[in-house]
Design goal:
Length: about 220
Amino acid sequence: MRFYLALTDEVKDKLTKRKECVGVSFNAVTLMHFFMISEEQKLINAEESRRFIETHKKLEKVPIDASPLLIERNGSYPRYEMTLSMYLSYQLEQYVLNNSNHIWTGLELEDSCSTVSSTYNISESLKSYLKETVFRETNISMTGLINMAVLLERANENTLLSPTTDSQSKSKQFIRIARPLKRYLGSRTNHNGRRFTEGELLEIFLRNLVLYLDIPNRD
C-alpha cells in the first residue's frame, strides 16, 4: 500500500545519506527505520498531534510503499486527528532526529559512505525465509535486511555468540554491506576463545533479526 509521508528536508537528507551508506532504495531504508522504532517511541499526545499536523501539512509528500505488517502494527495506535500517513511521518521524524539508541550513529559520517560486496555461505532455509516470508511482510530487500541485522547487533552488542547447530545445506549469498558494518563483522570474529567466520556471524545476526521482527505465522 502506498503512503505519502510529510518529511522535512532535514529528514529526507538524513535518509538519503543512509540509503547510500547501506546500498538500498529510499523506500527500503525508510522501512528499515520503521521496523526499528520501539513501542514506546510510537506514543503521541493530542497536543503533539495538532502541532505536527499544522507544521507539516503543506510539505511536499514523499511516496512510500509500505508492507501489510507495518500497517498492521501501526493502525491501532491513537493518532488523534492524524491520518495514518501523517502519523507515520511523525514517527519517522522523531526517530530520525532523536534516535536515542544511536543505531545509525557514525554511519553517515564516513568519508566514503558506500557498500562493500562480499559472498558468504548462508543456510538455504534461512535465505529462503528471508527472501520470501520476511520480504513479503516487511518489503525490505535482502541487502536491507542484512545491513539492518548488523546495525542492530552493533548498537546492542549483547549477543551471546554460538554457532548454528542445524545441518541445513548452505549456498553462496552475494551481499552488499556498509563499510563500517563490514568492519564491525571483522571485529567480532573472536569471541570467548572461539573464532567465527564473518559468514557465521552474519547468519547468527540474521537469525536474531528474524526473532526481533517477530513475523506472524499466516499459514
